[in-house]
Amino acid sequence: MCAGIILIVLLSGCIIGSSTEQTANTTQNIQSPEDEFVKEYLAKQKAQGNQQEIIGLTEATTSTTTESSSTTTTVLRIPCVTQCCNDTIHQPKTCSKWLACVSGECVEKQCPLECCVLGMYQMKPCPGDMECDNSTCVRVECPEQYECCNQTFNWGGECPPGYACLEHHCMALDSDRDSIPDVTEKNYGTNANMSDSDLDGLSDYDEIYKYHTNPLSKNTDKDRYPDATDANPTRTDTAIILMNVSDVMVTADLDVMKAVLLHLDFKTPMPPNETKALQIESNLRVENAGTDYTDYINYTYSIGYWCASGIDVSRKPIIVPYTNATNLTEITNHSWVSPRLQTENWTDTNWRIKSMPTTINRRVESGTRFTSHKWYTLTVGDIPEPAWEALVSLRRCAYNITITNLRYEKY
What we know:
The protein is of the alpha+beta class. The chain has helices at residues 2-31, 36-50, 182-188, 204-210, 254-266, 385-393, and strands at 60-64, 71-75, 99-102, 105-108, 131-133, 136-138, 140-141, 154-155, 163-166, 169-172, 241-252, 276-288, 297-307, 319-320, 336-337, 349-360, 369-379, 398-408.
C-alpha cells in the first residue's frame, strides 16, 4: 500500500515538475527576445491590453491595502485617438523610434546634421551645387559633360582668362558690350572698355565685321572723307586725270625755213631768235576717270620733233648736241657723232623744242570729259640747231606733243 502511494507521489511529482520546467522555458524565451522590433510589438500589445475606456475628466482614486498598508494613486487620462499622443491629457501613445510625435501625427524627425538625404530624418539638402556625403556637405568634381562649373561650389572645370562660367559653359567676356569679346579686341588692339575705340562714330563691331575698316583710324583709306561719311571707306576716293593730244597741225613760215637752210649750207646769217618760225595747234582731251574731284590740274605741254631710224639728219659729219627718244629731258651738253659715220642702223631721235607749264584752275568732277584747243608759236630761238637741220633737210620727220609733269588733287 505504501509502495503504491509512493509510486503515485513520484509519478505526480514527475508530472508536476515537467510542467513547471516547460512553463519557465516559455516565459524565458518571450521575455528575452533578440529582435528590437519584437520588443516594440510586445510593448504595444501590452499597452492595448491595459487601456481602459474612460469618458469624462480624469479622476483620482486612492486604495488602501491591508497587507502592505501602502497607498497607490492612479491618474486616469483620455484615450489617445490619433496616431500618437505625448501630452498630459491623453494616454501616452508613442511612434516608432525613427519618428517623432508632432500634433498627434508621427512624422520624420528634423535633421540634426549638416544635411540629410535618407528617410531617417526630414530632407535637408546642401546649398548650391554641393552634395551630401555622410551627412556632410562637400564640394564635388565638375561633371564631365559640363564645360565648366561654378567655382564657388565645384572643383575643376575652370574657364581660361577672359571667359566666365555661365550655365556650365565658358562664355567670353564683353566688357563694353559691343558684341566683340574682350579676347578678340585684344587681338585687334581695340579698347575692350570702349565700343568705339577711335571715336569716329562707327562702333568697333561695325568697322571690323561690317565695313572692314580700321577700328583704330578715323580715315582708313586716308582720303578726304572720314570713315563715318565715306561711301567707300576702304577705297581711296581720288581723281584720276587722263590727258592726250590729237589733231596736231603745224604751219611753218617758208621764208624763215629758207633763211635757216641758207645758214646751214652757206653760213649765211641766222634769222634773229625772236623771229616767228612755226605755229602748232592741237586738241587736248582731259578726262577724270577717278572717284573724286580735283580743284586743279597742272601739267607741262612739250613740243618735240622726231625722226625715224635710218634717216640722217646731220647733212654733214659734224658733232651736235642731242637727246635720246627715251629721255625727254631738256637738251644737255652730250655729244653725238653723226650716225652716218658709224652705222646705218641708228635709233630714233627726238628733240624737245619747247616746254610750257600749264595750269587748269577749275574743279573737275569725277566722270568729267572736256577738250581744250591749244596753239603755240615757236620762234627761231626756240628750236635747237640739230632740230633745225632735220626740219629744213628732211620731210620724213614729224612733230610730237607730250604731256609731262601731270599733277592734280589726289590722295
